[in-house]
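Hi there. Long-time user, first ticket. I'm pasting a complex I've been working with (about 295 residues overall). I'd like to know whether the download I got is complete or cut off, because the file seemed smaller than I expected. Thanks.
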Amino acid sequence: MRYGRVYVEDVTVGDELPPLVKGPIQQIQLTRYAGASGDFNPIHQDDEFAKAAGMGGVFAHGMLSMGFVAQALTDWAGAGTVRKLGVRFAGLVRPKDVVTCRGRVLARSSKDDLHLVDLEVWAENQRGEKVVTGKATLSLPSRA
Amino acid sequence: MPIRIAKGIVGREYPPFPVTVERGRIKDFARALGDPNPFYLDDQVGAASEWGDVIAPPTFPVSFRDERADSGAILRDLGVDISRVLHGEQEFEIHRQLTPGATYLCRTRVADVYEKTGKSGPMAFVVRETAVTDGAGEIVVTMRGVTVIRL
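Hi, the file is complete. Here it is re-exported in full:
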């Protein structure tokens, strides 16, 4: 089952998130994301506009890549487990780029019924350049 | 000559606005990400889940907007053109899952504005915080975004 649950007891510091590969990015996905998110900045849609703005052409919404990182977390741990996700957009994602989301467990803590796992997360393009870097905290169930 | 931004907006609070989470918008958002998770897309899976319905993906609240207002209000207050704007950072803290039909209140304030010179020249950073609360006034989600303006 792809959407299984991860229990806090199954997690060890240093564990790596199964990588999630997204893309190649297509213009239609940027258009669809604009509609879904309400971010209609033409810099993500109109190549001439993006060039005139000095950006060298269209690039993806940072939030699209952040959504991919969130998916990497929920594919692994289950929907509804993300308690905190914070990222910096470190590089531009262009049409045709392939984005791979990764993560690593930094810490695990339990207090009463609350079981938290902290991870470092990042996304990189097909050249291994980081386009997103950040941290996440997941709230996981316990077998106990 | 670099453009100047209106730093006076630090501390400004925008009028609170209500949002109602719509089932179809949750699904559009998940599909736009290419995320087929059934807890977002399948009403039966949602109904059988601990939340009793489908839930929104973690980054969904970024779509919350004041439908009464023109979305360019903050840019206009800053005095900058959208072509100079980049998304620098974003953070979500999710206290409770968002489900369809619920109405929340969003309050956005400008927490900080600062300038720095990076590799690609002078830039201004605008930090915005949004608190999303339920009908009882309890925090459901908080968001913090940093908008970068190329000066």
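A couple of notes from our side: Chain B has a mean pLDDT of 91. The longest helix of chain B spans residues 23-33.
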